[in-house]
Every structure is written in C-alpha cells, then in structure tokens.
C-alpha cells in the first residue's frame, strides 16, 4: 500500500484505488473488520498473516484513513481497529468480491459461505444488493449474516490451531 505522496501518477481511479487496497492482506483484513473482528490476534488468526505483515498493513490502512486504532487495554497497551467512514464505504467492493467468488471460485458441492437475510422482511437476499422479496436496495447495516457450517468450522479450526501453538 502506498501513501498519498506515492500514489500512481495517473488519474485512473482503479489504479489509485489499487494503490490503497490492492493486495490480498488488506482485503482480508477488511473482510474481517466487516465480519466484526476488531483485535489484532483474531484478525491474524483468520487471515493467516504474519504479525509483521498485519502490523504493516494496519499502519498503512490507518495512514490511508481506512481504520482507526482505539485502546482497549492500558497495561499492556493494546488497540482494536475500527473502520472509518472511508473504510466502511469499501463494503460494496467486498460484497461484490464475495458474490463473484461464490459464483466463479468454488465447487458446486460447496454451499454459500455467508448468507445474508434482509432484517426488514426476513428474506435471504442471495448474492445481490436488492432484496428479491421487497425490492429494496440493501446495505450492510440492513443485513443479518449467517455463516455456513463449513465456513464456521473452518474459522473455528483456525482459532483452535492458533491457540495450540
């Protein structure tokens, strides 16, 4: 991730966006933040990033205005990470990657990893951004997420393996 002074010498918004969020680790960190993780260890467990990789990305994301650090412990000093408005605005990109991945990057025998239910009407919205039941455009705040058993088990397996180290 590049700092503002190092942004590509182009007016192309795609190139500029990639300078900020265009690597695997940043996208996985953002996924975890959108899933509700806020602490270094949990994000490390679920992304499988090294502590150095994660610390580097957190610093760059904070400098880029995507996240803010908030202390949750004074002794020892520990921080949690929260999305800023700029970071939260990235959600449609993560959601689109999820939909694309569910369609093109998995086996037919696999179920959808995370299902979203429209809180207002209680219907599954599938992979779209419009509720098929009531026709309302939905945002993350309008949705209730439910992990598949397979995805939940995969995440728990990572936690257990990490604790066993």
Automatic annotation (TrEMBL):
<protein>
    <submittedName>
        <fullName>Transcriptional regulator</fullName>
    </submittedName>
</protein>
<dbReference type="InterPro" id="IPR002577">
    <property type="entry name" value="HTH_HxlR"/>
</dbReference>
<keyword id="KW-0238">DNA-binding</keyword>
<keyword id="KW-0804">Transcription</keyword>
<dbReference type="InterPro" id="IPR036390">
    <property type="entry name" value="WH_DNA-bd_sf"/>
</dbReference>
<dbReference type="InterPro" id="IPR036388">
    <property type="entry name" value="WH-like_DNA-bd_sf"/>
</dbReference>
<dbReference type="GO" id="GO:0003677">
    <property type="term" value="F:DNA binding"/>
</dbReference>
<keyword id="KW-0805">Transcription regulation</keyword>
<dbReference type="Pfam" id="PF01638">
    <property type="entry name" value="HxlR"/>
</dbReference>
């Amino acid at each position: 991730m590049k700092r503002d002074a190092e942004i590509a010498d182009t007016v192309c918004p795609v190139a500029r966006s990639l300078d900020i969020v265009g690597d695997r680790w940043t996208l996985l960190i953002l996924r975890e933040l959108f899933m509700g993780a806020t602490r270094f260890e949990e994000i490390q467990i679920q992304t499988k990033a090294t502590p150095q990789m994660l610390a580097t990305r957190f610093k760059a994301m904070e400098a880029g205005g995507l996240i803010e650090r908030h202390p949750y412990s004074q002794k020892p000093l520990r921080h949690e990470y929260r999305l800023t408005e700029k970071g939260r605005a990235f959600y449609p990109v993560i959601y689109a990657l999820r939909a694309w991945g569910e369609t093109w990057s998995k086996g037919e025998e696999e179920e959808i990893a995370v299902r979203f239910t429209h809180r207002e009407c209680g219907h599954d919205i599938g992979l779209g951004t419009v509720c098929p039941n009531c026709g309302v455009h939905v945002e993350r705040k309008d949705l209730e997420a439910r992990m598949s058993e397979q995805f939940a088990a995969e995440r728990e397996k990572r936690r257990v393996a990490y604790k066993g180290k």
